[in-house]
Automatic annotation (TrEMBL), chains A, B, C, D:
Signal peptide: none annotated. SUPFAM superfamilies: Glyoxalase/Bleomycin resistance protein/Dihydroxybiphenyl dioxygenase (SSF54593). This is VOC family protein. Residues 14-126, 156-277 form the VOC domain.
Amino acid sequence: MSALPAEPIYDVAQLGHVELLTPDLEASAQFFTDVYGLYRVAETADAVYLRAWNDDVLTSLRLTAAEQPGLGHVAWRTTSPQALERRVAALEERGVEGAWHDGDVGHGRAYRYTGIGGHEQELYFESEKYRAPEGQEPYLPNQPQKFAPHGAAAAHIDHINLLVPNVAEASRFQQETLGFKLRERLTPAGAEEVGAWLSVMTKAHDLALTKEPHPTEGRLHHLAYAVESHLDVIRAADIFMEQGVGVEFGPAKHSRTQGFFLYVIEPGGNRIEIFTGGIHIFSPDFEPVTWTTEAGGRGTAWGTPVPESFHSHATPPYPVATGAAL
Amino acid sequence: MSALPAEPIYDVAQLGHVELLTPDLEASAQFFTDVYGLYRVAETADAVYLRAWNDDVLTSLRLTAAEQPGLGHVAWRTTSPQALERRVAALEERGVEGAWHDGDVGHGRAYRYTGIGGHEQELYFESEKYRAPEGQEPYLPNQPQKFAPHGAAAAHIDHINLLVPNVAEASRFQQETLGFKLRERLTPAGAEEVGAWLSVMTKAHDLALTKEPHPTEGRLHHLAYAVESHLDVIRAADIFMEQGVGVEFGPAKHSRTQGFFLYVIEPGGNRIEIFTGGIHIFSPDFEPVTWTTEAGGRGTAWGTPVPESFHSHATPPYPVATGAAL
Amino acid sequence: MSALPAEPIYDVAQLGHVELLTPDLEASAQFFTDVYGLYRVAETADAVYLRAWNDDVLTSLRLTAAEQPGLGHVAWRTTSPQALERRVAALEERGVEGAWHDGDVGHGRAYRYTGIGGHEQELYFESEKYRAPEGQEPYLPNQPQKFAPHGAAAAHIDHINLLVPNVAEASRFQQETLGFKLRERLTPAGAEEVGAWLSVMTKAHDLALTKEPHPTEGRLHHLAYAVESHLDVIRAADIFMEQGVGVEFGPAKHSRTQGFFLYVIEPGGNRIEIFTGGIHIFSPDFEPVTWTTEAGGRGTAWGTPVPESFHSHATPPYPVATGAAL
Amino acid sequence: MSALPAEPIYDVAQLGHVELLTPDLEASAQFFTDVYGLYRVAETADAVYLRAWNDDVLTSLRLTAAEQPGLGHVAWRTTSPQALERRVAALEERGVEGAWHDGDVGHGRAYRYTGIGGHEQELYFESEKYRAPEGQEPYLPNQPQKFAPHGAAAAHIDHINLLVPNVAEASRFQQETLGFKLRERLTPAGAEEVGAWLSVMTKAHDLALTKEPHPTEGRLHHLAYAVESHLDVIRAADIFMEQGVGVEFGPAKHSRTQGFFLYVIEPGGNRIEIFTGGIHIFSPDFEPVTWTTEAGGRGTAWGTPVPESFHSHATPPYPVATGAAL
């Protein structure tokens, strides 16, 4: 048996929740509720907790007031309490120095650490299920909440894209310590790896890592929620334009992951995606796809041009502005 | 730690392939290729091997000539060679008496056994990847084959529905020996469980078990391939009607799994579905949904009536016809 | 030139507006706004005027309080003032005894008469354009109103279906006096014509006439608004179910007109459709299609069964209930 | 009555057919059949006649071998023989010197003339209906041909875009002599009109006229066929890429007409569109929309950038190449 390859690890279940920082908490909260279509479930003096109608947990997004936009932290939910212990042990064996805390609105104790690339990350298992209050009960009991769409009706949290100084190193770290599966990577001819798409179960990606162009760390490229169909993305584009939120990029089809997408910048300055589709990977021995060329229009599946801002804008801005975002 | 619940098992990766029996091999093969949209990849004197354009393995369906239609066998692919050994050990510990064989077109050694409910089942790991021949290479390298749709363009194998005499028992067996996760079940008021929907990873179901109404075993309700969107199901309905293959049921939306579907009977007599969507389950502590009532139109999500044949027809027919199917 | 066939008449431009009667004005108004997705533009003591977001006129629907549900009147807008005079002359030449009135909210003088089959009808030209108030201006100026969907987001008034004792006679009358074009008709083998689909311009139908089964006149089968895509109909079905408004029939595809549809009964008792697609007819010498058989599943395009209520329910109910609708 | 505005004219029914010139007849014919999805219905030594599956006439496209790509002619079908005579009289009254000819495959006598802007145009009425041969009969009799999609499955001819030196003059000519209705126009601040969208019945456009940037005449910007849904355009994009036909622009949403589109260059060099949706105009007093600014992303509805080639490429190329196209 010694010749067998190591088994895949299924200790991380999902992208659990994300904390975004915003210099204009109220404007961001208004965007995420009225335009993006989320629901406000709790708030404190400096934070608003949100959920999507099809998230089965209480909350998947925390907005926190801050000087600058950017990522507060990204939290991965494990498949069991035991898996949580195993992954924390793996992190610590690797030299990560994190700390346990008691949790937050919607989840229990969590292990907080700084990942490769400088982003605050969290591992946790205990999560509060969403129980629809009176008037929000769904018609079909296999759905957490009534479908009464408003705005873009973002359905559930899907994936996050982080900028990292060393893509190959950060990708390897996610694979080795947390069992992420590498699905696709982008390695321009003669250059270092500039993108990696990793998933925890069968999606094309829960986490994308792309190359940080500046001498800085911890920046966010974008956060994505999913919708059910291409038409929902198209409808979202119409709704964003009508609401005065310009679409930065899309609707179009990614070559990597094959998802159908659009991106906007929320009022706090963070880039937010509406995503649907994408390939699903069921084979346990799926071979990661290496993209070696950007020629021939394969930056996007149909050759849709990528706007310059998609490469230059991230949060917090670089160099960090003093006093104001964007 | 002794109070912790058992961890979920991730040893089965996917519904790997299915063997269908047909009394008219050539007519069935013609249906699955020209109408359903699969590709013929190999054949022997009494069998035809098929693949869908988005299956990443060589073949997901074997058609075998037989007196009667029905299920030849259903095969589950494990997540690793080690997982295969573990699951075979779990089966044998449970008293299952199966046997190893050397494999078939597209896959390596496999453990064949008779499941609870009388269906031939298989566990295996080694599988042959599809390598697109010249002219079939895809434009995007993260896709196994060129998308050049014909017929209903079924994209990849999705799930199977088996009739079993005792749903609760068969469901428990799948959970306990193979780590299937129970997602939904149907228990009419005051009656025994008549349906169970189980999955191996994050889908709403890879396997549905429904109540066999007759004193028999081993029958097939239906086999489903997936397509990407609702419109692909609608297009398939138009194509089936044009090709003289009447739609038995749908397009409509299931209440269980929330998939959008249609069913036809292939020329050999087996029921075949085109399926899209369906809820995805990312939470590791998802609580199975118990449906206790059929009232209020929830047999289907919008109240679309279920045809009587959907309850009465399965393969092989009962009582087994002598000499001819259907 | 005497051998030339008569030229087609293009004097009627569109189904302009409809008045529905309802025994529960407030419940009906709430349905049409909150669930169906229309907007309230005016009201009087016993009437509410509504518009769809993509209607370019002020109002396309008047709800009027009444003892019984049913049709108040249906109004056809002509292509010019001159066309209005010509069509009134044609009606009067045919023996119709109508009367001019000064108009109503949203339109100018109109000729009101009783059509063949007993329905109140109107011809008019002058119509008030919708001018979006502040906050409702669209992003794109070729659209009357901001797209900020709520409920089923019905987009514009599309067609109406009236029950008539003699379909062939009523159809001929619409063709000869108003220039309606016969597109399709249903004539079961050996029976009289039971359905006629007529249009004024290039749609598959603006008016459907179907056989009244009872010795009565003037009843409404249904009124339809259009949406843009199949997915909008599917979304509407989900929304209706969530709002407690059961879907009577559909989503499915009509064989006649090939539209994709669903029907619900509004709280006042009238049947209301959400419709999309349908064939478009550009050829000026299009030959009407005669359907002679209902065999083979062609009552609907894919064989979806037609509920009995679709044949038995119309408004007002028959025999007319005393004191309460439905 | 003298104060009444002139009545709208409904003498032209549709864009009937188009002749495209191509320097590589066989490659163009192969593209239009295998990739675009049309059917070959007749051919001569130097021409191939094609139809779309949902055209109700025999043929809507003629490809003719020529030195250079470009427009052979565009043909408008009238609503009656009488309308044909009226429109020819109107043309001749305006000083147009055309000539009658006996027709071509699929249509009868036609009046050929050179339009404002230098394009060969034709008016005709008599057209040969398509009668599906055995094996091509549709399941539904209100459809001309079986739906058995291949390639992009272009459904029916939709509109054409011609470059003209003087948009306002050419637009006025189409309105005054043929009764085209102006729907939208683009007049950049302080500049002459650079675009006009005109229709004959209720579509957003059957004809677009855009500004010819060079001192030349008679050039084609693009020809469009329609498909039913957004998803059909998206599917077409995938199919074009897989077939090695790069997408020039789209899928995206036009601001003018609001259609959802994509463009490719066929092997002969002509630009071809796949189009769906677009606003429909039912009001007879629709006020043309004047677009005065390109700011704010309204070149396309969502801000999708317009490639430079979309402004620079037309056929024949300018200056005309000697010996070879593109």
